[in-house]
Automatic annotation (TrEMBL):
UniProt keyword Methyltransferase present: no
Record's protein name: ACS family glucarate transporter-like MFS transporter
SUPFAM superfamilies: MFS general substrate transporter
Organism in which the protein naturally occurs: Bradyrhizobium daqingense
Location in the cell: Cell membrane
Membrane topology: Multi-pass membrane protein
Record PANTHER family: FI19708P1-RELATED, SOLUTE CARRIER FAMILY 17
Main subcellular localisation: membrane
GO cellular component, one term: plasma membrane
Signal sequence range: none
Length: 450
């Protein structure tokens, strides 16, 4: 018997599972910090005498800076690597979250200005987070596991509500809305330091063995995406630097434009949930802020289950058919069509039915939330951060438009009915984008500029 043991016979380590768990936890904190204002919103708006239009603009502040900072954030990731840029991002956005609690000690006019400014700063600091998630998944996961990995970390946005909406609702009820910001900011700072101690690239991680490294590399993982720590910045900057020509080529690619449009519409559902949904439960359905925090958990839990299930379904289709296009499009289109059930809330009166239709809509949204898997599948190696940044720029334009449009609908009609139709129609457009515009899903190959 041969004493030689092949790589295939060696038990692979499972470091990539720890990596995606950390991405999930950081994404959970990320979205909890975004949602602090929606939980504190009813009490805060009452104390500062803010009308729906003013609240809509304050809700949108995060989105303005988050969108503008996406491409610069992606460039930083390509130049300096995901680990350090992400760590600084987590710590800085958490500091600005914590500082929002202090606006309650200012006069009303000053408090509004400072709150808007702090939300802008949170948006800037969070900009690299999701492009970094996509880069890390591309570096650590083979193609046949990438859908599940991306869906898992992305489902942190729903888990944030499951865990933190009741907690933040209780904090706001028991201690006042200011402490929502204090507690969440402090938690994020701790998470930033944990990240620095535990996250490395595949070539650097002390716990990965050769069997796992070869498995992910042979499966298409971009293990060289972040240069090893002994490479100098000067050596990797020329290849990692992402010029305007890379951006131009991505913006002229029909597949990517369809993906960008789809993500804009998908995120409209996300930002309704993160901004106006608790207000809808309090103002339209008569719940207390404490009740709203707990009621919001059921749609969020369904979104979380749908999010994980969407990735599992996608990777199963990929293994069965070998078609990346079918594997990504089927869950996305089906999920978006299911999300249109949010409009049914306009036609029922019982709170249980309202929550049920919301849960169904967010279950569908979770199944269809595979955009970051598509980014990991399609981004060119030399511009992964910038590609993710562009994707997130277009996707998060809805973080600006959604709260403002809904604010104006409420001001004009005094009802959420039009707002729910607006959200449902965006789900329909997302399905159209993937069915008609995107075409075949494949990795973009950039042409060298002369």
């Amino acid at each position: 018997m041969s004493a030689v043991v092949s790589t295939a016979d060696v038990r692979r380590s499972r470091v990539r599972l720890f990596i995606v768990t950390m991405l999930f936890l950081v994404t959970t904190v990320n979205y909890a910090d975004r949602a602090t204002l929606s939980i504190a919103g009813p009490a805060l708006s009452k104390e500062l005498h803010l009308d729906p239009v003013a609240m809509g603009w304050i809700f949108s502040a995060f989105g303005w800076s988050y969108v503008v900072a996406q491409v610069p954030g992606g460039w930083l990731l390509d130049r300096f690597g995901s680990r350090l840029v992400y760590a600084f991002s987590i710590i800085i956005w958490s500091l600005f979250t914590l500082m929002q609690g202090w606006v309650g000690f200012l006069s009303a006019g000053t408090a509004v200005v400072v709150l808007f400014a702090l939300r802008l700063l949170v948006g800037v600091a969070e900009a690299p987070s999701f492009p970094a998630n996509a880069r890390i998944v591309a570096a650590w996961f083979p193609g046949n596991e990438r859908g599940t990995a991306s869906a898992f970390f992305n489902s942190g946005q729903y888990f944030a509500t499951v865990i933190f909406a009741p907690l933040m609702g209780w904090i706001a009820h028991a201690y006042g809305w200011r402490f929502v910001f204090f507690v969440m900011g402090a938690l994020g700072i701790v998470m930033g330091f944990v990240w620095l101690k535990t996250i490395y690239g595949p070539k650097e991680h002390p716990s990965i063995n050769d069997a796992e490294f070869e498995y992910i590399k042979e499966g298409g993982a971009l293990v060289d995406l972040d240069a090893p720590r002994d490479d100098s910045l000067r050596q990797r900057a020329p290849e990692a630097g992402s010029g305007w020509d890379h951006i131009r080529q991505l913006l002229s690619n029909r597949m990517m434009l369809g993906v960008y449009l789809g993500q804009y519409c998908i995120n409209t559902l996300t930002y309704f949930f993160l901004t106006w949904f608790p207000v809808y439960l309090v103002k339209e359905r008569g719940l207390s802020i404490l009740q709203a925090g707990f009621v919001a958990t059921l749609p969020a839990l369904c979104g979380f289950i749908g999010g994980v299930l969407g990735g599992v379904i996608s990777d199963a289709i990929l293994r069965k058919t070998g078609s990346l296009t079918m594997a990504r499009k089927i869950p996305i289109v089906g999920g978006m069509l299911l999300s249109m059930s949010i409009i049914a809330c306009n036609y029922v009166d019982g709170q249980a039915l309202v929550v049920g239709f919301m849960a169904l809509a967010f279950f569908g949204k979770g199944i269809g939330a595979l955009g970051w898997a598509v980014v990991s599948d399609t981004s060119p190696k030399e511009a992964g951060g910038v590609s993710g940044g562009l994707f997130n720029t277009f996707g998060n334009l809805s973080s600006i438009t959604t709260p403002i449009v809904i604010g104006y609908i409420l001001a004009a009609t005094g009802s959420f009915n039009g707002a729910l139709v607006f959200v449902g129609l965006n789900a329909l457009v997302a399905a159209f984008a993937y069915l008609v515009i995107v075409g075949k899903i494949e990795r973009v190959t950039l042409k060298r500029s002369s």
